[in-house]
Amino acid sequence: MGALTLSGIHKSFGAVHILKGIDLDVADGEFVIIVGPSGCGKSTLLRVIAGLEDATSGAVKIDGADVGHTPPAERGIAMVFQSYALYPHLNVRDNMALGLKHAKFPKEEIAKRVAQATKMLSLGSYLERRPAELSGGQRQRVAVGRAVVRKPKLFLFDEPLSNLDSILRVNTRLELARLHRELKATMIYVTHDQTEAMTLADRIVILRDGVVEQIGTPMELYNAPANVFVAGFIGSPQMNFIDAAALGRHDAVTIGVRPEHIRLDPAAGDAAGAVTHIEHLGADTNVYLDCGKAGLLTIRLFGHHDFDIGAKLFARFEQDKLFRFDGDQRAIGKGA
Amino acid sequence: MSARQSTPRAVAAHAILIAYTLIALFPVFVILINSFKSRAAIFSQPLSLPNSTTFSLLGYETVWAQGNFILYFQNSVIVTVASLFCVLLFGAMAAFALSEYRFRGNSLVVLYLALGIMIPIRLGTVAILQLIVASGLVNTLAALILVYTAQGLPLSVFILSEFMRQVSGDLKNAGRIDGLSEYRIFFRLVLPIVRPAMATVAVFTLIPIWNDLWFPLILAPAENTKTLTLGSQVFIGQFLTNWNAVLASLSLAILPALILYLIFSRQLIRGITSGAVK
Q1: Is B278 close to A163, i.e. CB distance below 8 A?
Q2: What is the pTM of this model?
């Protein structure tokens, strides 16, 4: 219960073409994260799935039924918004119950579901409070609770964590992962944060300018990005892209190597450079090495390392972890 | 800059504001004190407070005895409250449509309504009179209510649509996903949030309607449809003006407007939007 199929979704606002033919299959119970930079159309895509916007062309199917003309409330979906969008005049209990009341559920059923969601999200002590009297994290939990009580086929999340501070964000991320395990529900989640995508998703959809760049599990995207954009988007710090000619290679136009796949060597290596900056993160050390024609490389070393600024060092690439890209920025293949 | 350094500026600002307040309130004050004085005292000492020799309730007695004062009062209240209700309700609904839905001609309608703010409705008096005569509404309160609604709508739509644009789209969408109808979204979610704006519009709409002499004189001058402002005019004659009665009726006319204003300005200050989003 809860498979989603998108085929050929186009969406234009006047002359602005936002979504340019999105095809996507989401299996029942899957956690799919749509990720991309600002303005890539990911939120619009979510709104089309929810029925808050009509697609210009293309079909949205939930459990095989075309829902193109079904109003949002009857699609069997629930949505959690970035701004929480709680009803300001209702307390927490009524915020969660409103949708069910409108769908004319019996009182006992509503009370039962609200009690379940309250327990699941530990909202017990806030039930009588209004949204204004809650902290950001609590509001977010109420917003999730409001989605949970609907027992939807499909959960839609629109950047639910981006208004939370970083500690709360990690906690809520864990909560969402737990929620997904417990409910076994299908979830579609939109974010611009690749860390959220990597940690939560069963599969990630990378969107750019209204076009799907790649769909795959987090490790597929990390290990086999289809192009320069995906390679740069997944992984932090970002992958280094080096002009192949600067390395004296002719089997590719651009060579990509992740910061964690470079070692520093005082004697010899693939590229020579001078240390320009060091970041100590505790567990890791990020070293920035200016390699002249090869550009500024980011190198991620594990543990604590110290170098003098300006020190001459060689970067040694792990040869089997190199990515090669052609003139159209597409991946050619991995390794040397 | 610290608060201490800005003290002289604060004093200056307050002095200017207090001076302005005094200037604005002075005529009202003069009307009030003179309404409690005898006719002779009004002319001999117009600025002095009523004392034991000059004090007189003659004006109020005349108003009570002569004019159909209670009826005028009632007419004014009916016309003002009904017009306000229509202006706020239809203005808010139009504003919601214009700010929320994308449709062909949306910006044209907005522009058309903006024109309504710029062109005074009195320019159309002749046409309005013809219209009212043709529809048989002469000497009815309905005629006044319709005209005042038309007069108030453009500004109301203009102000309210600006405010409604700022209402979180997520909130409305959350309502749609919970199955609320567009009417419920409008009445239960959006209206409470724009309540301060509604109060602003109400105040701006209320005062000109309450004080208007023009349309009551032209459209509804009959005895049983006279408004308070028009009714007060019976005491102003070509050769003799009963100043006691005029001042007394004007003093009484201030009261309801003041009460309505106080109600709305309380709304202006109160806001329940905090915590709705973010």
Answers
A1: yes
A2: 0.79
